[in-house]
Predict the 3D structure of the following.
Amino acid sequence: MSTTIMAIAAHPGDAVFTMGAAVAQHIHNGGKGVFLALTAGEKGSPASIPVNRYGELQREASEKAAKLLGAEFEILTYPDAEIPLHDRAAQAVSDVIRQHRADVVVTHWSGSWHKDHQNCHLLVRDAIFYAGLATMNRKQPPHSVRKLFFADNWEDADNFKPDTYLDITAVFEKWMQACDAYPMWRGLTGFRYNDYYSSLAVMRGCLSGFRHAAALMSNPAEHLSRVSALL
Ligand SMILES: [Zn+2]
């Protein structure tokens, strides 16, 4: 049976640059892929592009990237830099998880300097709980996410300790093309995302014995083993 991976990020760039390779690989392996960004990231606009126009460009880029990868892309309407941390937002994310019946979720690690990223991390934690809670009465039936991973993001690096290396060699080029849909990819807003994330995939590949790899951190809460013998 086909399984679904959902990448849930604060901003569309985070979704595709830091989680997109895992989504592309899941689709390549026969699964489904969904991106969810909580905001369009419009306030990251460079001085040359008005904020509203930049929001439109981010949405267009997201559609193009998703099409290239064979994924779906949803963007919630929270204003950039103002993703709220409250139950209504967690319910909104939970509704999208229920709607797509996500089996695997990838999101931000908590060790971020960016408040939108921190809030996204916390919202996803609560959204997964709400999605599986049968007594929480929502339009869609309850759904339990089976695995949660955190993505390798230059802005979320505090105490990020990867323990899972995913071979993304087969999808590397296609993923690079998807990233290139975004105006910011090639350094327009100051950071050289293209150089950083393409090199990171090579570096993570060196460490794991693959040509290209995505490093992920599994959820510490899932590390508990229940055994009746140690060997
Ligand atoms: Zn971001």
Q: What stands out?
A: The radius of gyration is 17 Å. Strands lie at 4-9, 32-37, 72-75, 104-107, 147-151, 164-167, 213-218. The first strand starts at residue 4 and ends at 9. The chain has a mean pLDDT of 97.
